[in-house]
């Protein structure tokens, strides 16, 4: 039986080919990252067909083959905008994911966004009943949409097991909209993505050391870096008391919210950072201090594909 982890490792940047994240790592590079994760006991991986049009899944699938499948927890996604024209597009996308991942089931299958709750939610139901999907999740859904998904699944004798939304010190709209409270009350695991704001909350990137020129991250974050100086300093001050880094402190904040953070990893040291965070607990005063400074920064990091969850 796999114990419930406190950290999920994300493979969004795998197979990126130097476009969004500004890296071009090959499988040999990710082999070291994967091996380090398994060694550290981090066995929960999150990917999606949308990440590199299957490249992320393929890399992860190749690396998974030397680990007993039952020791891994694998999460991937159905993205409505990438659906094919077949009569069963959700089943079709899952079939491709299973092939690339070289497995016959996934532990979590997500509807990647809220494109059409009424249309897509029912199409996941037969995949659970077939055993190809163990748990259903939704990503980028508002509270009212989450409740509607829950109703549709309940009618089929199933339940929603997980919600995955953007949650960081710079985007707390899921918390402010009551989604975290709803998940807690209904025994739904909340997964937080972009906890580190794609590196902006790690302390690595500053006005003197910006994101790689030409990457999407540079376009989104480089002009925000001056506003983040005070928050980075506060993260460092809080982290120093726990002997953890700026990035680890931002992760620990998400854990303090009862969230399961998805931490993108492309290097072995990032795996080590994630493994340490599971042992750290911030106190209420530290959480409040961080949120106060983050709010004062006034930085909006809601992505073009996302919505302000408070506007539900």
Automatic annotation (TrEMBL):
Superkingdom, natural source: Bacteria
Transmembrane segments: none
CDD domains registered for this protein in UniProt: AKR_unchar
Domain NADP-dependent oxidoreductase: 6-294
Gene3D superfamilies, per database record: NADP-dependent oxidoreductase domain
Keywords: Oxidoreductase
Cellular component terms per the entry's GO annotation: cytosol
GO molecular function: oxidoreductase activity
Protein name (Swiss-Prot/TrEMBL): Aldo/keto reductase
Species per Swiss-Prot/TrEMBL record: Limosilactobacillus pontis
Species lineage: Bacteria, Bacillati, Bacillota, Bacilli, Lactobacillales
